Automatic annotation (TrEMBL):
Gene symbol of the encoding locus: thpR
Stored InterPro entries: Cyclic_Pdiesterase, Phosphoesterase_HXTX, RNA_CPDase
Protein name as annotated: RNA 2',3'-cyclic phosphodiesterase
Organism: candidate division WOR-3 bacterium
Role description: Hydrolyzes RNA 2',3'-cyclic phosphodiester to an RNA 2'-phosphomonoester.
Family as reported in the entry's similarity comment: Belongs to the 2H phosphoesterase superfamily. ThpR family.
High-level lineage: Bacteria, Bacteria division WOR-3
GO molecular function: 2',3'-cyclic-nucleotide 3'-phosphodiesterase activity; RNA 2',3'-cyclic 3'-phosphodiesterase activity
Chain positions of motif HXTX 2: 132-135
Reaction(s) catalysed by this chain's protein: a 3'-end 2',3'-cyclophospho-ribonucleotide-RNA + H2O = a 3'-end 2'-phospho-ribonucleotide-RNA + H(+)
């Protein structure tokens, strides 16, 4: 039986946005008196679909299907804005940064990814997709009302690729490794230059 790969489909930010996120986390660390597992800024991403444990054949199949389905999906600009918590600010298990500019494109891209993967057996989550970038996780629910007074707006970056990541769980925390990078379409930009 082929070995299973824990994986997910995501989009990344940029080097400078990761720097901004590192500063944000430093600021939040000072403001939290409870224990939070902060995501390392270099591992932060916006998840579009969590695939779970899948075979390498599934990953290859997903790669070729997604390559086709996103071939016409144009690159777009994105910006993080605002902080939020899941499932609620009063009983938070996750603190996240929201998506401002480009949120509609992230939602459209997520829909495209999910619809494509459903054709090869992917079972999507029932809850509606809420675009976010996870900053930290708590073992027990806590009140994080303080995030309402933290203002955060990142600089803009260009989302130009989809990434299928492998997630390996270690005692020191998860390690995410890109397995596949799929380019979005640059057609919008090149057409003007032709
Ligand atoms: P998140 O984006 O809300 O943090 C890798 O674990 C990524 O897949 C994380 O970014 C995580 O969510 C996302 N994910 C979604 N559903 C998950 C699940 N059931 N278990 C683990 N990760 C999940």
């Amino acid at each position: 039986m082929s070995e299973k790969i824990r994986s997910f489909v995501a989009v990344d930010t940029s080097v400078s946005v990761r720097g901004e996120l590192a500063r944000l986390v430093k600021d939040l660390e000072v403001k939290t008196e409870f224990s939070v597992k902060w995501v390392k800024p270099e591992q932060m991403h916006i998840t579009l679909a969590f695939l779970g444990e899948v075979t390498s054949e599934f990953v290859q199949n997903a790669e070729s299907r997604l390559k086709q389905s996103i071939a016409g999906f144009p690159e777009f600009s994105c910006q993080l804005a605002g902080l939020g918590a899941f499932p609620s600010v009063n009983r938070a298990r996750v603190i996240w940064a929201g998506v401002g500019t480009g949120a509609d494109r992230v939602i459209a891209l997520q829909r495209e990814v999910v619809q494509t993967l459903m054709r090869i057996g992917f079972v999507p989550e029932r809850r509606p997709f809420s675009p976010h970038l996870t900053l930290g996780r708590m073992r027990v629910p806590v009140n994080v009302q303080f995030i309402n007074s933290v203002s955060f707006v990142s600089s803009e970056w260009r989302v130009s690729e989809l990434i299928i990541y492998q997630s390996e769980l270690h005692p020191s925390g998860p390690v995410y490794t890109p397995l596949v990078r799929l380019q979005l379409s640059t057609a919008e930009f090149s057409s003007g230059k032709l």
